[in-house]
Write a structure and sequence with these properties.
Oligomer: single chain
Largest sheet: none
Order of helices and strands: HHH
Mean pLDDT: 90
Number of domains: 1
Structural class: mainly alpha
Shape: flat
Radius of gyration: 17 Å
Number of helices: 3
Number of strands: 0
Distance between the termini: 49 Å
Length: 87
């Protein structure tokens, strides 16, 4: 396995792990457990972002094109409406 494959594999595994932490946080009723899981997820997010930056610099990872500000505002508005409708 070459460096690019290893980095992309680690990025994918880390993102999957963050998803599982989020799921566990949502199901945990003990505040200390929730806090511990949140700290672990936050650490993984920092690690993932650092590795992503290295991967991008080396050309191992191509990020998606940035959305334009108008599209971003439209999505924010739609999400806000959806959240307000659920309350």
């Amino acid at each position: 396995m070459n460096d690019k494959d290893m980095v992309n594999d680690i990025l994918a595994m880390t993102k999957a792990g963050m998803t599982e932490y989020t799921r566990a946080i949502g199901e945990a009723s003990d505040q200390n457990l929730r806090q511990t899981l949140q700290q672990m997820r936050d650490g993984d997010e920092q690690f993932q972002y650092s590795l992503y930056q290295v991967a991008e610099q080396k050309g191992y990872y191509q990020s998606a094109q940035s959305a334009n500000p108008q599209d971003m505002q439209q999505i924010k508005s739609q999400l806000s409406q959806g959240m307000n409708n659920n309350q």
